[in-house]
Design goal:
Length: about 300
């Protein structure tokens, strides 16, 4: 290399290397300070795209867990109300048994029937009043086999969504709860003609009281079927939550391997780039002194 004064090629070369090392040092500093290996699209374009998809899945799965927990709370609310209904049905059967014997006259049996009707009214009140987030649970609102979510308020059976997509086999299922009002169970003086014929309408006569024993028993079985169905759904939701939690954890681990910086490796790169930058700064100072050699020859 010739000795010239117009161009300091050595200094230009060192300056280029310094800029490169300093850029790498800045990148290492950014990664270490943020903890991310992929902080911008330039770091890893394909990795960034995959990471963002994984991050959306993780967030969606976590919300799915919350959705499933909300559904469990809804089921527990309905089951708690049905437990109270159970107590009323037991009392109604006890009253029917009392009125079915011949040791009471019509006046006394009418008094017994009065309490029987009050129990039926209370069952209806509980069924109409039980709700979760303003969703009626036991009035037949969720008893339909069809679900329609096209309107502002969904109708029919309740859809519980917990997956990341919209596949009926993987991402959601339904909660269906039958009507548990006294008339739907065939009990009380609002139950209709069928209740009169099969019992359950009243216990004001000995014959009707005897028939009501079987009617109340049928109502208890109907109520127990609903509770058993809800219990099975709760167990299923708890299993779903466990599975989704594991899935979210594994996706989070995969996303971390793509996105997060390996501190040990990155610190090694940081020290290397720092040494190279310091060396380049030192050598740039030396390279800037080289034209002085030419001036010595001229002088």
């Amino acid at each position: 290399m010739t000795l010239v004064v117009n161009h300091n090629l050595m200094a230009m070369n060192v300056a280029r290397n310094l800029n490169s090392h300093y850029g790498n040092l800045a990148a290492s500093t950014r990664k270490l300070s943020s903890g991310l290996r992929v902080g911008t699209a330039a770091d890893d374009a394909a990795g960034l795209a995959i990471r963002e998809l994984m991050r959306s899945d993780v967030s969606t799965l976590h919300q799915g867990v919350r959705n499933a927990n909300d559904a469990i709370s809804l089921i527990q609310t309905a089951d708690g109300a049905l437990q109270t209904v159970d107590e009323k049905l037991i009392r109604m059967k006890e009253l029917a048994e009392q009125a079915a014997t011949g040791t009471y006259d019509s006046v006394q049996r009418a008094i017994i029937d009065s309490e029987y009707q009050q129990m039926a009214s209370e069952i209806t009140r509980i069924s109409m009043a039980t709700d979760f987030n303003n969703i009626k649970l036991l009035d037949g609102n969720l008893s339909s086999d069809k679900h329609d979510g096209s309107g502002l308020n969904s109708t029919g059976k309740l859809k519980v969504h917990f997956g990341t997509g919209n596949d009926s086999a993987e991402d959601y299922y339904y909660i269906q709860i039958g009507c548990t009002t006294a008339s739907a169970l065939g009990l009380g003086n609002n139950a209709g003609q069928a209740s009169k014929d099969q019992g359950g309408f009243s216990i004001s006569t000995q014959e009707m009281a005897q028939k009501s024993l079987e009617a109340v028993n049928r109502a208890i079985v109907s109520k127990d079927n609903i509770r058993a169905h809800l219990g099975a759904l709760q167990n299923r939701l708890e299993a779903t939550i466990s599975n989704i939690t594991i899935q979210a954890e594994n996706v989070q681990a995969a996303e971390s391997r793509i996105s997060d910086a390996d501190v040990a490796t990155e610190m090694t790169q940081f020290v290397r780039n720092q040494v190279l930058s310091n060396s380049a700064v030192s050598m740039l100072g030396q390279a800037n002194q080289l034209p002085q050699m030419a001036m010595q020859l001229i002088g």
